[in-house]
Amino acid sequence: ATLQGRTCETHGCNVLKTTQTAPMRKRVLFVRHGEGEHNATGRWNSKRDPFLTAKGIAQASSLRGNTEFSDCQLLVVSPLSRAIQTALGAFGENPSCRVVLSALHSERCSARCDEGRPKSQLVADFPCIQRWQGFDTLPEHWTPTVSSDSCWRKDRVPAFLAWLRAQPERCIVAVGHGAFFGSILGWHPDNCEVAELVDVSQVLCQLRDTQPEIQLRAVKSFEKVGLAAADFVDDVRKLLSDPDPSIRGAAARVLGRNQEGNVEAEAVVAEIEALLRDSDASVRSRAAEALGDMGAVAERSASQLAATLQDTYSEVLQNAAWALGQVLVARCAEVSKRTSQTDMTSDCKRRRLHDGDLEGFAEDLGRLLCHAELDVKYYAAEALGSLGRVASAFNSQIAAVLKATDDGETRRICLWAMGRCGTPEADVVKACLKDVEAAVRGAAVEALAENVEEVASVAALLQDPSCDVRWASVAALQKMGKGAKACSARLAKSLLDEDASVRHAAVDALCGLDETVAFLPDVAKLLNDPDLEVQIRVVRALGQAGTSAKPFVPDIVKFLADYGEYKHIALEAIMNIGSDEDIKVHVASLYEDNDP
Q1: How far is 330 from 317, CA to CA, in rounded Å?
Q2: In angstroms, rounded to a whole number, what is the distance separating the alpha carbons of residues 392 and 400?
Q3: pTM of the entire predicted model
Q4: DSSP assignment string, 55-121
Q5: To which H or E segment does residue 368 belong?
Q6: CA gyration radius, the chain
Q7: Cα distance between residue 21 and residue 3, in whole Å
Q8: Are 449 and 475 in contact (CB under 8 A)?
Q9: 551-555, 586-590, 592-596, range with greatest mean pLDDT
Q10: Please, are residues 49 and 117 in contact by the beta-carbon 8 Å criterion?
Q11: Segment 227-279, tens digit of pLDDT
């Protein structure tokens, strides 16, 4: 990829404005880590900084000797363990090139699996990294968190690309993560997939090439570009009026991924919205998809998206339905917070968006539930689910779609939508509790979570063979509140579940139902659980149990000794348990050994 600026040296193109210059072209390869433990289980919150599985280690080893890396002059590695293991598998402990450890491209933090461990723990597992550049300047507690990393697209992605531009090497390999790399590439790489960063300036020039095969190849590359095009937004906007429909559609798609923090986003939305009326169906489809990618930024286009639901092309309908749900989901969430469930309908009639009311949009989407094509019904149901209780009137029609199909993913999305819309048809949902597909059973459990009358039906799934379904059942019982207290003994058995995510959900559920004290010995045993997340949940639960948990204060102190970075959780728990002299002594010793 060319990271030197916005001119294309290869083609000598002067169409683009030159904002930066550099004599050197770079080739940048992104390598996503091998299969991690969280990838294999699908449990993103069960473990901090998970390692590679045996399969992931084999995937990384298979990259050793890859000819794509033969010219590598710089290897840059994320400090998450799975990335370090992948780099070691592909390049060994002593690569012939310069190696840099950089937290700039650690995974975007959306769950516990994306949180890194302290530097001292990393070097204990991987001693060779202390020889890598960047190790000395990496803070002991370097990791971003879910709360601190909310602006990763706006902050870390541009900073990482700028860092790559500043390096003198001409061939760079970066080992990192799917979501972070995917935001730049425009598509999500598989485990250990090698992806070359698109040279946006070069591709923009190739779109003007007179040779059809070069132009076609450029269009295919261009429409996949993600945040790598952030510096080229003005140039891409000009392509929205290109005479070639494939270029217009690709430009809309690229712009849809590059509007976060753009001060001219409103103008770009208007330009893409105009393409919803384009004579070419593929352009209309790409324009709808782009507006959906923009989310709430494109809320002003809701009416035009609703009008596009009259289109005669299936792909256009699918993207327009999905996009309408995406651009309105933030407003619907806001309405849900302001309004009680009982007066939601009447309140929505009073509240008007500047471009239409929410119920009107729900009606437009509801009509698509009768469409002949299943894919159109799927996206209509998903969009209605995004609207939430505003679309409750369409639950019976969504249920009809569910009953008429044997497609598991469609059944799952229908159940999800019915649960989001509220008051789903209980008999229809309960029938899905016996579905052969675990994802469908789990969605059915979640759809019943607010129906206290179905406590027994939900509790029956605590013994489901799928850990995902068991987890959903535990979470649903917690959500049911006091009505689920009769199932507390059955919930307590889930503390012994073989899956860590189910165990920590069970701890949370008993705590949420104020039943921790009733099962205190069983909960406290999990202070020795092999999963750290379970231990953290137990410490919090014991703290909320109050004075009844006094016998377990020494165990909480031991937890602190093992995991000092969670001292605030241990201290809060001990203080909540009581103020007797022995507890004060424990607290004093903690403050003496650790910074408060």
Answers
A1: 21
A2: 14
A3: 0.81
A4: HHHHHHHTTTT-GGGTT--EEEE-SSHHHHHHHHHHH-SS-SSEEEE-GGGSPP-SSGGGPPPPHHH
A5: none
A6: 27
A7: 10
A8: yes
A9: 551-555
A10: yes
A11: 999 889 999 999 999 999 999 999 999 999 887 666 688 999 999 999 999 99
